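TA notes. Do not distribute before section.
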Amino acid sequence: MTAHLPSGCGYGHRVNASNTGPELFTWEFASNPYPAYAWLREHAPVHWTKLPSGVEAWLVTRYADARQALADQRLSKNPDHHAEDAQSKNRTGIPGERSANLMTHLLNIDPPDHTRLRRLVSKAFTPRRVAEFEPRVQELTDGLIDRFSSHGQADLIHDFAFPLPIYAICDLLGVPREDQDDFRDWAGMMIRHGGGPRGGVARSVKKIRSYLADLIHRKRSDLGDDLISDLIRASDHGEHLTENEAAAMCFVLLFAGFETTINLIGNGAYALLRHPAQRARLQQSLDRGETGLLDTAVEELLRYDGPVELATWRYATEPLTIGGQSVTVGDPVLVVLAAADRDPERFADPDVLDLSRGDNQHLGYGHGIHYCLGAPLARLEGRTALATLLRRLPDLELAADPADLRWRGGLIMRGLRDLPVRFNAV
């Protein structure tokens, strides 16, 4: 597995303990990054490297360091703290968000603005609000399975894992049903181009921005029981959200909410298909009407092969030390959640899938003030989707050689491009 790092991997003035190691960010790496992350945890746990975009950054791979970095307020989310030139700033974050005037969202801001906006949006993700949404998630799940259950085969990404969170987040935001297929098309373009040319993603971002501006304008005169209406109504100590803040908030909830849930369902289903004994335990538990194992199963799937590979960008606002490495002001820092959640210093037998794992304080949805706001909804969708698949299609099996499956090549998210399955038609 070990090989010389490719030329230009960006040591510069920041020297790591070794100049050898696994090759990162290749297609082979994307299909199984865990051996490379194991090497980094042992030999270069805080590793300076050049990313495919050309931006140089620190990769933090050990659990203890990752947890510390995620909560360290000296690491800002604001890309204006990036020490590189303007061209490099445009290669971090979500493609197109700067030109579409969508920067003022929770992934790009620090307190006090982060505190204010998060408090306003968190009202949509209270336990009561998420519980009220459960029947709709079940309805969407069953409706999607109804469309392909008589065919005997399906692509679980395109036919199931992708549309479910799209329709769910559109309902939550208040996007009219007649417009939701447009959202699905724009989101599909973002997924398809996630590891390729940024232009395709940027065009989708602009289309979504234009639509959200129009929708917010329309809803001002026709408020409903949805998140966009709540944001229009919301105020924090008398300060209303600006239209740009509301649009940016809706955008990031869409962007972050649908792709993380696609990958939770897709990666989770794939892991269950590759581990038949664990899947059988879960299926038998569900057949008995028990839900305890389902809850721990979702947490283990989030740890084992979670939907977010690297946490979103952070930038040092003052000199600091992470894992023994000196980090300079303006340096980008990327916490590798996928590496931290396989750290043997924190998890026993970390490369083993154990759906009943008890001590499982994984970092799949982050840690600290930027912990994923939509995690309760994502968990609900993941539990509902996986349980319903096992209940309705108990003979589900993989219809492709695992070696032939392809993973999307983006930097932050981790998910399959497709997941062909077969089953007895019902």
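Switch to the second chain here.
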Amino acid sequence: MTSTGGAAAVLDRDGLGALVAELRADGRTVVGPTVRDGAIVLAALDSADRLPYGWGVELEAGRYRLRRRADGAAFAHSAGPQSWKSFLHPQRERLWSADRAPDGTVVMGTGTQDRPAYAFLGVRPCDLRAIAVQDRVLRGGRYKDGGYQERRRGAFLIAAECTEPGATCFCVSMGGGPGADAGFDLALTEVVDDAGHRFFVRVGSEAGAELLARLPHRGADDGTRNAAAAAVCEAADRMGRAMPPVSLRQLMGASLAAERWDDVASRCLTCGNCTMVCPTCFCTTTEEVTDLTGDHAERWQRWDSCFDLDFSYVHGGPVRSSTRSRYRQWLTHKLGTWHDQFDSSGCVGCGRCIVWCPVGIDITEEVEALREESER
């Protein structure tokens, strides 16, 4: 994205509605947070009225609850069960199809055709960093994913800076924070105070500047600018969790024989929830399906997890057959050997793996236990 020098403006609620309307008029599928099934989930929006105005969340290890807010804020909630990975790197995608013609020849078909031009509204800074991580893996790596590249290339990203972190958030200790610093077209910071309900907007690309020019907005006043900056700074001081201040890469490499792996293995169900909700986990497998006649076949790509017993299967059986070995693989790769492959950590501190673990395993607690054991 091309920087525009950080031009700023202010939108009111009507301006946010116009933002969604303009994106839809451009032919984009607008995806954002909304309330459904007892959670704040990501879904296609037909208007800004479907945003979760007045809803917040209560988070803890293995626990997620909606709660009503008195201020009517739309983005004062923490990360839900989905990340934008669900749209850029979907759970299942058809790679190709094949049909046998009456004369016996085989006609090959292309993969999934439905690849809409997305506009993502309300992308948290941790998720912006997660998208950047997946870009390195799926766009810049040795084995590029064509479907991801196409969806990512056309995506318009509107960040929502965090003003109220959850009890399981720890992005600051992972080198991030509640403020958006790069990777967006527009960045919103919601302000609700005596001066009203409004959104401080920063421009991050030429496309963002062009869209903002078409919206009803006003110049950024000092009161709104300062209130937005203060809310983001205060959020950085209210993280619910933190990783220990050590080199996680070195700690993981030195902890392969730690006794703590047995402790966490006694609790882990190897269900793979942590990898499914993680915004950076990218592993996939492929499967072929056919109809009853045998004349039509398809190859599908779908998410896979290193917690799956067959994930490390080679001739003769799986390499990692124990819960201990599979949990250790996930955590040491996420925080350690990911650096060797992609020059960064694989964790952005969103806390989803803590919330959506059925038994409440806390990644920050496990790393702290490994640190204490290594020091002993």
